[in-house]
Write a structure and sequence with these properties.
mainly alpha; Rna Polymerase Sigma Factor, Chain: A; 9 helices; 195 residues; 0% strand; single chain
């Protein structure tokens, strides 16, 4: 079973094999946790979200369609779990009066393991990604970091392909804008430090 493709293992899990589901968890634990960490920005939230993903996947495995790829199906569950966790955290922060400003307060601190970028621009791009609204960040991570097709990204986000294409396009534009603002602020900070 270890050498089987994901879809075959998922089919065995769908038929009730707990061993097969354990194989899927072992294969995807790191990937799901990484996505959750990049979305939530907090290790404890990522761990909780990742556990929630696998609990939800186990409960819904009978609805998995073996003719579809397994990874996008699981990542759709992860996307929903992360969105819910970020939304719930924002609601709690707002009620507690700790949220400073709407869109910015949902941005997690950038994790250090994000492989999206080269080392020299890593901090700037991670900060720019963290500043994006959660759905924009998620759409970019699914499309480019997880390597999902546009159709798979749309399915993971729960929206039509055209709407997902627009979401990804706009998210890239926002990322460029955030990155430009971050770099401009860094240049000003460097100049002030030199004076």
């Amino acid at each position: 079973m270890i050498d089987w493709p994901d879809e075959r293992v998922a089919e065995a899990a769908r038929r009730g094999s707990r061993e097969a589901f354990s194989v899927l968890v072992a294969r995807y634990a790191r990937r799901v946790h990484s996505l959750c960490l990049r979305m939530t920005g907090r290790s404890e939230d990522a761990e909780d979200a990742a556990q929630d993903v696998f609990l939800r996947a186990f409960a819904a495995i009978e609805r998995y369609e073996p003719r579809r790829r397994f990874a996008p199906w699981l990542l759709a569950i992860a996307a929903n779990a992360c969105r819910n966790r970020v939304r719930d955290r924002f609601s709690v922060e707002r009620v507690a009066g700790t949220a400073r400003d709407g869109a910015r307060s949902t941005a997690p601190s950038p994790p250090s393991d994000a492989p999206l970028v080269a080392a020299e621009d890593g901090a700037a791009i991670r900060a720019a990604l963290a500043a994006l609204p959660p759905l924009d960040r998620l759409s970019l991570l699914l499309r480019y970091e997880e390597g999902l097709s546009l159709e798979e990204t749309a399915a993971a986000l729960g929206m039509p392909r055209g709407r997902a294409a627009v979401r990804v396009f706009r998210a890239k534009a926002r990322l460029r804008s955030e990155l430009g603002a971050f770099r401009r602020a860094s240049v000003v900070e460097i100049r002030q430090h030199e004076e």
